Amino acid sequence: MHDEKKPGRGRVKQAALDWLKILLLLLDEAIAVVAVVFLLRYLKVDIPFPVAIAAALLVGAFVFIVHRAVIPGFRQKAITGPDGMIGAHGKVVEPLAPCGTVVVKGERWRATCKHHVSAGEEVEVVSLEGLTLTVRCKRPAGNRMPAGTNGAS
């Protein structure tokens, strides 16, 4: 039973990794501040020590808050490429029987579906192979016809 992980340990590890990323992102700002300080000393610009400390704290706080706001972006789902398409919703513009055309994220795509889907219906992307989407219809299963049928009885 020693192999069991403590509850919340994964969250603590993730938080530690997030803070490490923030510190690494702050490193370039720290280097820039040091460069400015050396440039001011080289140019013989005299800044009172309390003013320098106050300015450094303000800039540091601003940069820290901005970087802290970036943390949620570390865990966001990919929004480009094939991973960004899975789960996206679109509309059929040329009937899928089984192949047709859909518009997803404002772009026209060739698509296939297991069931006949009429123009104007909503679909959801389930996979992407090359430049062809595989979609599923969002309407209830009882209202679907198998692909290749025209609905005539």
Structural class: alpha+beta
Order of helices and strands: HHHEEEEEEE
What is the tally of beta strands?
7
Reported for the largest beta sheet, the result is: 5 strands, mixed, barrel
Shape field:
elongated
Determine the mean pLDDT.
81
Oligomer: single chain
Summarize the structure.
42% of the residues lie in helices and 24% in strands. It has 153 residues and is of the alpha+beta class. It has two domains: 9-74; 81-146, OB fold (Dihydrolipoamide Acetyltransferase, E2P).
Question: Can you describe what's shown?
Answer:
The chain has helices at 9-42, 49-74, 81-85; strands at residues 89-94, 99-104, 107-112, 115-116, 122-129, 132-137, 145-146. The protein is an alpha+beta fold. Helix 1 runs antiparallel to helix 2 (49-74). The longest helix has 34 residues, at 9-42. The chain is elongated, with a radius of gyration of 28 Å. The termini are far apart. The model has no long low-confidence stretch (mean pLDDT 81).
Describe this protein with a few key phrases.
about 150 residues, two-stranded antiparallel ribbon, 2 domains, OB fold (Dihydrolipoamide Acetyltransferase, E2P), 5-stranded mixed beta barrel, alpha+beta
Secondary-structure topology with pairs:
Elements: H1 9-42, H2 49-74, H3 81-85, E1 89-94, E2 99-104, E3 107-112, E4 115-116, E5 122-129, E6 132-137, E7 145-146
Parallel strand pairs: 3-6
Antiparallel strand pairs: 1-2, 1-5, 2-3, 4-7, 5-6
Helix pairs in contact: 1-2
